[in-house]
Design brief:
Helix content: over 70%
Strand content: under 5%
Number of helices: 6
Distance between the termini: 23 Å
Largest sheet: none
Radius of gyration: 21 Å
Structural class: mainly alpha
Length: about 150
């Protein structure tokens, strides 16, 4: 177990910038909250667990919501979110597998299909099954990430 830091109230308020004081207060709070355990590992693990499955859940929900008629701006936002989340998840997959897996390849394909820069224009009838399939895939990835880390 890592030793508890000894940061006193007086120590925090010695002629330091407000940023340095705030950083030390956060460090103290994290150290106390983790009861002296290696706090960076605990925080990184919680962000890792919560962040990755949520990165899959957000585009899944937005893709299902996109099945109802909405203003054009929503679909532009959807393209940004889906592309960003797909590419971030593909990067995480690449880091874990040290290569491109089938999941990473599908995520890259989704990112390319939904990209807002060189937009692929299809009819609503064609986008609906694509949205459902992409939502199902993001849901699968989210469940896989959540169950692997719980």
């Amino acid at each position: 177990m890592a030793p508890m830091p000894t940061i006193t109230h007086e120590h925090l308020h010695k002629k330091k910038s407000s940023t340095a004081v705030a950083a030390e207060k956060v460090h103290l709070l994290v150290s106390v909250a983790t009861l002296g355990h290696d706090h960076t590992t605990v925080i990184d693990q919680k962000v890792h667990i919560m962040g990755r499955w949520t990165i899959a859940a957000i585009p899944a929900a937005m893709l299902i919501f996109a099945l109802v008629p909405l203003p054009y701006g929503y679909y532009t936002l959807l393209r940004l979110v889906v592309t960003g989340c797909a590419l971030v998840l593909a990067w995480f997959d690449y880091q874990e597998t040290q290569g491109v897996s089938i999941f990473g390849a599908v995520l890259i394909g989704i990112g390319v299909l939904f990209n807002p820069i060189v937009a692929v224009h299809l009819s609503r009838e064609i986008w609906m099954p694509i949205d459902i399939g992409a939502a199902a895939f993001f849901t699968f990835i989210g469940i896989r990430l959540y169950s692997r880390n719980s």
